[in-house]
Design goal:
Shape: elongated
Radius of gyration: 17 Å
Strand content: 15-25%
Order of helices and strands: EHHEEH
Oligomer: single chain
Length: 107
């Protein structure tokens, strides 16, 4: 969810269906994880309902992700599946670690 959010506002408008496709998890698991994040205080969910003449009522969720105050970065799991030599992979991770919080991602 975080990788599909606006990194300045920490807001994501991704659908549960899209999260399911990106992660390979079923939508029921996605809903369960979102509830756990919400209950733990890491996520706020705002639901809006719009009426569409063709499709009826459409429900959309906006996810407000609690900003992290400490130093961190996000790393796509596919990074570990690449065949980088160990020294190059280590250098890239070190380089990423000295970047500003959440300024980019390694993909």
């Amino acid at each position: 969810m975080k990788c599909c959010s606006n990194h300045k506002t920490n807001i994501s408008h991704i659908t549960e269906e899209k999260l399911s496709l990106l992660t390979g998890l079923d939508e029921r698991t996605i809903r369960r994880v979102i509830k756990r994040l919400k209950d733990a205080g890491y996520l706020t969910v705002q639901t809006t309902i719009k009426e569409d003449a063709d499709r009826g009522f459409i429900k959309r969720n906006s996810y407000y992700i609690k900003p992290e105050k400490s130093n961190y970065f996000f790393l796509d799991n596919s990074y570990f599946k690449r065949n980088y030599p160990a020294k190059i992979a280590g250098f890239l991770l070190l380089l990423k670690a000295i970047c500003l919080n959440n300024t980019d991602t390694i993909q």
